[in-house]
Amino acid sequence: MKISNQNWGWFRITRLAIGITMLVIGIYKHEVIPAFVGGILMYQALLNTGCASGNCLTQPPNPNPKPENITYEEIK
After folding, report:
1. Is residue 60 exposed (0-12), middle (13-18) or buried (19+ Cβ within 10 Å)?
2. How distant is the alpha carbon of residue 57 from its chain centre?
3. In a structure prediction context, what are the per-residue pLDDT tens digits for the chain, which is 76 residues long?
4. Residue 41: exposed, middle, or buried by beta-carbon count in 10 A (0-12, 13-18, 19+)?
5. Burial class (CB in 10 A: 0-12, 13-18, 19+), 40
6. pLDDT at site 51
7. How far is CA 1 from the centre of its chain?
8. N or C, which terminus of the chain has less Cβ within 10 Å?
9. Is the CB of residue 26 less than 8 Å from the CB of residue 36?
10. For residue 24, is it left (φ>0), alpha (ψ between -120 and 50) or beta?
11. What is the rounded CA–CA span in Å between residue 62 and residue 15?
12. Calpha distance 48→35 (Å, rounded)
């Protein structure tokens, strides 16, 4: 895995800040769930992954779709 130092947007920085906060709170209070969730958020922010490694991105709709030529067969 490669640590990416590019594409640090506001959402990625926010995810890292929330992950660090949750991890520290989980360790301080000896709680497993906040520490685990904080670790996952930090992992996603540092390695720029998320939503199954970016597979949840959708393509924008095509504004000018080309019509397809449809061929018809006559049924007797």
Report:
1. exposed
2. 8
3. 455 556 777 888 888 999 999 999 999 999 999 999 999 989 888 887 766 555 555 556 667 767 778 788 888 7
4. buried
5. middle
6. 65
7. 16
8. C
9. yes
10. alpha
11. 31
12. 19
**Domain range annotation of the chain:** 10-52
Residue type, 57: L
Number of neighbours of residue 31 by Cβ within 10 angstroms: 12
What CA–CA distance (Å, rounded) separates 41 from 15? 6
Question: What is the model's pLDDT at position 6?
Answer: 60
CA dist 50 to 8, 9, 26, Å? 14, 14, 21
